[in-house]
Specification:
This is Two pore domain potassium channel family protein. This protein has 339 residues and is an all-alpha fold. The chain has two domains: 147 residues, no CATH class; 180 residues, no CATH class. It has 14 helices and two strands. The chain has a two-stranded antiparallel sheet. Helix 2 packs across helix 3. The longest helix is centred in the first third of the chain and has 26 residues. The chain is elongated, with a radius of gyration of 27 Å.
């Protein structure tokens, strides 16, 4: 009995199984192996795409992450069981002549045991190895099935992500446009009519991120379907509403607070999982709000606005900049005419 192979095999098998359970059954993020694999695959695609959000290559990153994670789990379970079988030279024998199986034949045996094919040309040599084979077969069936069925809710969550992005983009191409469309000459009732739906979708998207972190790597090269750009678009709109208008304008504080809470929850999730130490290359611009004044919307003076956007909101907008850059976008995609 080779103790090293036995311990190493059990360790690899258990770590892989724990990663599958954490990723597919937990509502609080993926396993460490899956997270590492996902980040590596995304980084490779992002680099090859020239860090350009409009690249046609990036939409393939999400599916590649899923397939790579699945293959990592299969290889981990397979390698773990193989090492366990390799710990005993006589663990597996040929059913035809009872001769001892070679290491390559044990690798084959471990594979068809996990896949529950049950070919039968090789068998376990003793009761202990028969039990080990049964455990491998049952766990392989459960874990591999769970891994594949994991794809279904992930793709559903990706669909919601696209829906949310398109919903926000449909409200306007810029924060200024969203606000001018929502202004009726007295208040922003048209904008606040959409707030409940926005909050619901955004909070569900945030929860989906906790349950299925891999959706973060599903990218859309169309700006109107890009979640990072859409989120910043909405956050900037909310900021102008809350911080840039004079107090004389009547706002729906309840819905504004609901929107703020939903936006903060998403940003906290992103910061905790993907942007722990943001250091963006770009500086967030001060938005040009002259067209809002032209529509009769009362704004604070330019000095106050500059202080709000450059100082009071510096850290938040730094995080928003990093969020854009992480997905291959810039502030030019939020404020097209910003310098």
């Amino acid at each position: 009995m080779n103790t090293l192979f036995l311990v190493l095999g059990l360790l690899v098998y258990l770590l892989t199984a724990m990663d599958i359970v954490k990723t597919t059954f937990s509502s609080n993020g993926g396993g460490k192996i899956t997270d590492a694999v996902s980040k590596s695959v995304w980084k490779s695609f992002f680099t090859l795409a020239g860090k350009n959000g409009r690249s046609k290559l990036l939409p393939y990153a999400g599916p590649a992450v899923l397939v790579t994670a699945l293959m990592t789990w299969v290889v981990g379970l397979w390698a773990g069981l193989f090492l366990v079988l390799l710990s005993d030279a006589e663990s597996i024998i040929k059913s035809s002549d009872q001769s001892v199986a070679s290491p390559l034949e044990k690798l084959y045996y471990a594979g068809f045991t996990l896949s529950t094919l049950g070919v039968g040309d090789y068998v376990a040599s003793s009761n202990v190895w028969r039990i080990a084979t049964s455990i491998g077969a049952f766990s392989g069936l459960v874990f591999i099935t769970a891994s594949i069925t994991y794809f279904v809710p992930v793709l559903s969550a990706v669909g919601l992500q696209s829906k949310l992005s398109l919903y926000i983009s449909g409200m306007g191409k810029t924060p200024q446009q969203i606000l001018t469309k929502g202004w009726d000459g007295r208040n922003f009732s048209s904008f606040f009519d959409t707030t409940s739906d926005l909050c619901q979708m955004l909070m569900q998207h945030t929860l989906n991120h906790h349950s299925y972190p891999v959706i973060h790597y599903f990218h859309n090269s169309q700006p109107k379907l890009a979640i990072a750009r859409a989120f910043v678009l909405l956050d900037e709109t909310q900021t102008i509403l809350r911080r840039g208008l004079k107090e004389e304008i009547d706002l729906d504080e309840l819905k504004l607070d609901m929107l703020q809470t939903a936006l903060d929850a998403y940003l906290d999730m992103v910061k905790g999982s993907y942007l722990k130490n943001p250091s963006p290359n770009e500086t967030a611009p001060v938005p040009d709000l002259e067209n809002l004044e032209a529509k009769g919307i009362s704004l604070k003076n330019s000095k106050e606005l500059r202080e709000i956007f450059t100082q009071q909101l510096h850290e938040r907008r730094k995080l928003l900049t990093a969020l854009l850059e992480m997905d291959g976008w810039t502030w030019q995609d939020v404020y097209p005419r910003a310098s």
